[in-house]
Amino acid sequence: MSWLSGNLRRAYRSLDLSRFSFGATSAITSSLALLIGLNQLDVSRIGLIGALLVLGLADNIADALGIHVYSESRSGKPTKTSTATNYLTRLAITLVVIVFVIFLPLSYAIIASIIIGMVVLAILSYFIAKAHDLNPGRSVAEHLVVAALVVIVSQLVGASIKSLFHN
What we know:
By secondary structure, the chain is mostly helical. It contains six helices and no strands.
């Protein structure tokens, strides 16, 4: 049994989650914030899709550049692979949310996006914790609480703006 445990620990450590962990986390939290906040403002489906595309394409390039510059400043060597992987991960997750918005009633699209986002974040958090010998339950809980905070704040900001400026 300890042989299996040791092999699993080595397998977790061999995963290079840094190549897509930022992209996945950023896409989940940013897409949920945008979707939930703008939905409170009664933005049309096409407006939500447009905003998500701007987030997934243009803002994603800005984040990828930030990751690239940060990684180079720490390592002093090119980091094109992790930059590209983070970009593609973020784009893929944002596109999943867009597909939900296109094909599901908006309330279901929001629920599906929250569920999928939280599941992906929980799985990613679990593997990161295992790779670094941290408590997986605590790590998953911490990350899900922060993501839930993003959802709640987005809801409150959208609702507040609507109530302040509603004619």
